[in-house]
Amino acid sequence: MKAVYFLVAIAIVMIFFMVELFNPFLKSIFVSILLAVATSSVTVYLENRFKSRILATSFMTIGLTSLFFIPILYCIFSFANFFNQVDQQELIRNLSDMKDFVQESSKDIVFINDFLNDLTSKIDVGKTVQNILSVGAYLGKNSAKFMIDMVMILIFFFFFTLYSSSIATFMKELLPIKKEDSTILFYESSNVMTVVLYSILITAVFEGFLFGFFLTFFGYDGLLFGVLYGFASLIPVVGGVIMWLPIVIYEATTNSLGNAIIIAVYSILVISVVADTFVKPMIIKYINQKVVKTPTSVNELLIFFSIVAGLSSFGFWGMIIGPAMVTFFISIMHLLKKYSDDFKEHVSYD
User: Fold this and answer.
1) Model pLDDT, residue 158
2) How far is C-alpha 293 from the chain's CA centre?
3) Which of 32, 163, 195, 277 has the fewest Cβ atoms nearer than 10 Å?
4) d(CA 60, CA 40)
5) Exposed, middle or buried: residue 195 (CB in 10 Å: 0-12, 13-18, 19+)?
6) Rounded distance, CA 14 to CA 269, Å?
7) Hey, what long-range contacts does 274-281 have (CB within 8 A, 24 or more apart)?
């Protein structure tokens, strides 16, 4: 037996045991690696400015915590506090008013009247309230685990970012392909992931700010609803509707029809049309041309399906894992095609 085959066999066995050993942290490790890869260009820029890798890494970790994790914790604690203080009877009355409002508003629209009446007749308001209140217990039960996951992601992110150059060099040398091909593989994956992550993050912050700031004029918690809208906007197509439609219905059922119309018009025109349709592509174009080292073409339809599939398969972190897996798969396919073409040319010359 050749020594290399023996070492490969031992490596496969050890990889199995390493996966078993770190199984509770695999998702955190994977997410932190993807975040480190996606933010590598900014880390390098900060390192050149600060003349210190540790300082740049610390700044990135603090920035990631401020932009991404603190808002999540704020939402968890706000909802947990809300569900602990909610008046069950008042909630039942509000939901009943919403149900009556939907039935009344559809009377003049014949083709959807029967459908809405059939749909609302199946809604048990009391049971719905119990399900809503159970969300509070679920948040309290799982918030501790979620916070532990976030802390672990930040820790792993710090060390993967700090030693990213050494790790990347080692991985390139370890791969059984040409060095220039491994560099292309890493760069292509990193570039696309950078465009996807930054565009998603900046768009979510921008649209969340627009929505939250506007709702403060109506007495709502602008920070909470802004953060919620930002995360809802990560769900393609229907994300924003999930946030503004319930508020519009609530305003309409509490005799504030004017407020409901204003919020609906603002959400559709300013956020959905202007911000999402016109500003978002400009953000993606700017990131693609100014941030990444090599501009890359991002297929928005492909990103849409990868985010949806990621959220369905991996939960919240799927919005990062999904596009990353698809991106890496496409990079592998391009590299495989290159090797296949080289092999065909070599065979034809022989």
Assistant:
1) 92
2) 23
3) 277
4) 10
5) buried
6) 56
7) 275/203, 275/206, 275/207, 275/210, 276/203, 276/207, 276/233, 276/240, 279/203, 279/206, 280/199, 280/203
Cα torsion angle, 174, 175, 176, 181, sign: negative
Q: Where are the extended beta strands (E) located within the chain? A: none
Q: What is the pLDDT of residues 187-240, one digit of tens each?
A: 766 777 777 777 777 888 888 888 889 988 888 888 888 888 887 777 666 677
The end-to-end CA distance of the chain, in Å, is 31
One-letter amino acid for residue 279 of the chain: V
Question: What are the tens digits of pLDDT across the range 157-167?
Answer: 999 988 888 88
For 296-326, give the DSSP string: ----HHHHHHHHHHHHHHHGGGHHHHHHHHH
Amino acid in position 284: I
pTM for the full model? Answer: 0.70
CA dist 144 → 28, 124, 149 (Å): 15, 32, 9
Cβ atoms of residues 267 and 244 within 8 Å: yes
Nearest alpha-carbon partner for 307 in 200, 176, 182: 200
- Give dist(CA 38, CA 197) in Å, integer: 7
Structural Rg of the chain based on CA atoms: 25
**What pLDDT score was predicted for residue 57?**
92
Listed as own residue / partner, the contacts of 162-166 with beta carbons closer than 8 Å and 24 or more positions apart are 162/53, 162/54, 162/57, 164/36, 164/37, 164/40, 164/43
Who contacts 49 (Cβ-Cβ below 8 Å, separation ≥6)? 56
> Are the C-beta atoms of residues 257 and 268 closer than 8 Å to each other?
no
Share of the chain above pLDDT 70, in %: 67
Residue 56 is encoded by which pair of tokens? 């740049």
3-state secondary structure of 146: helix
The residues, any chain, with a CB within 8 Å of residue 68's CB and separated by 6 or more, are 201
